[in-house]
C-alpha cells in the first residue's frame, strides 16, 4: 500500500466526511492530510471543507481569474488557489475531493493547487470534522515549516 507521506509508516485512512456518494472516498493511492502538506508535493489526494474565501477573485498575470480559499480537514487548514471555472464553482461549506493536486509556496505561504492533471469534485456539504489550526499557510518561514516548539524543520 502506498504511504501518504514518506516519513509515515502507516497508511492514512480515508477522510471522515459525510459524502453524497461514499464511493468518492475510495481511491487508488494514498490520502494526504492537510498537516502533512509541504512545498513541492505532487499527486496529493485529499478531502476538505471550504471555510472562507480570502478576499474577492482577482485577475492573474496570464488573465486567469483566481479565488483563494481557506480549506481544512480534521488536521489543519491551508490556503487553496482556484482558477477560472473552479474559481466561482464552489462555496462555503462544500466538501471537496482533490485528486492529483500539488502544493507550492506563493509569496512565502503554502498553497494547495488543482493543476492541469488534478481533479476537483464536490462530494458533500457541511458535515465534516475540521480544525483551523494549525494553518499550514501561516506555518512557513523561508520555505521551512515552523514547528509548534518554535524550531524550524526542513521541508
Textual characterization of the structure:
With 155 residues, the chain is mainly β. It has one domain (22-153): Nucleic acid-binding proteins (OB fold (Dihydrolipoamide Acetyltransferase, E2P)). The chain is 0% helix and 39% strand. It is built from no helices and ten strands. It has strands at residues 44-53, 58-59, 65-73, 76-83, 94-106, 109-113, 119-125, 140-141, 144-146, 152-153. Strands 1-3-4-6-5 form a five-stranded mixed β-barrel. Strands 8-9-10 form a three-stranded antiparallel beta sheet, with no helix packed on it. It is globular and about 40 Å long. The model is unreliable at 1-6 and 147-155 (pLDDT under 50).
How many distinct beta strands? Answer: 10
- In N-to-C order, the SSE pattern is EEEEEEEEEE
Q: Considering DSSP H and I runs of 4 or more, what fraction of the residues is helical?
A: under 10%
Q: What fraction strand?
A: 35-45%
In spatial order, strands of the major sheet run 1-3-4-6-5
Uncertain runs with pLDDT below 50, 5 residues or more? 1-6, 147-155
CATH homologous superfamily, by name?
A: Nucleic acid-binding proteins
Key traits:
155 residues; mainly beta; OB fold (Dihydrolipoamide Acetyltransferase, E2P); three-stranded antiparallel sheet; 10 strands
